Amino acid sequence: MFRVAVVEDEDDAADKLLACLRRYADEHDGIAFDTAVFEDPVGFLKTLRAGEWDVVFMDIEMPHMDGMEAAHRFREIDHDAVLIFVTNMAQFAAQGYEVDALSYILKPFSAAEVDRRIERAVQLRNRDAESVLVAHRGGTQRLLLRDITYVEVHGRSLAYHTSAGVVTVNGSMKSVEGELGGRGFLRCANPYLVNQRHIASVGASAVTLADGTELPIGRSFRQTFLEALAKGYGRGHAS
What we know:
InterPro entries: CheY-like_superfamily (IPR011006), LytR-like (IPR046947), LytTR_DNA-bd_dom (IPR007492), Sig_transdc_resp-reg_receiver (IPR001789). This is DNA-binding response regulator. The longest helix is centred in the middle third of the chain and has 18 residues. The two termini are 14 Å apart. The protein is an alpha/beta fold. The strands form four sheets. Strands 2-1-3-4-5 form a five-stranded parallel beta sheet. It has a five-stranded antiparallel beta sheet with strand order 10-9-8-12-11. The chain has a three-stranded antiparallel beta sheet with strand order 13-14-15, with no helix packed on it. Strand 1, helix 1 and strand 2 form a beta-alpha-beta unit.
């Protein structure tokens, strides 16, 4: 699952980009997009977290803040997402190298132009995607770390909760924490190892994930968990 943000104040352009993404996913097995549209960059940046997006389509000419300034602020937080400018004026997009933009799409754009950018963005994210190989009764399965929301231990079994469902394998918390602990996964309670990129908020006694799932924060884990979370966000870790 690729998370895609469309930062665009023109409804027609945003709708066309979303339609292109839907069609691309329909035509390519194993590709899915989780999309969100932001009408202005201020709202987009307000809640931005490192590693939150895989691909960002950014209009350059928008009210309140232009897309180039927004892109600079975006890169201060997220260094890894694929950034693609959408603009009426090519000369502005030429500054894209300053923010490591993949490319730009010139309005009015065709579906073919968008498809080429999407294909390249998917290739880049797949190439760099980290994964873990798990073994279960049906064989082995490779899970992208970005798709794992959290891991839960039940006795001698591990349940990998992912965006596509739950994968259960034999194993221990000690083994999975050793494998994932340094890759953006944090222990919030005795039976839970959570992927920090999926954390939406942290309360006094629980952590809430982007999909609404709430996991308890164990009293003996709270200080270590919060310190590791702050450290991870500070260095812009993206799992």
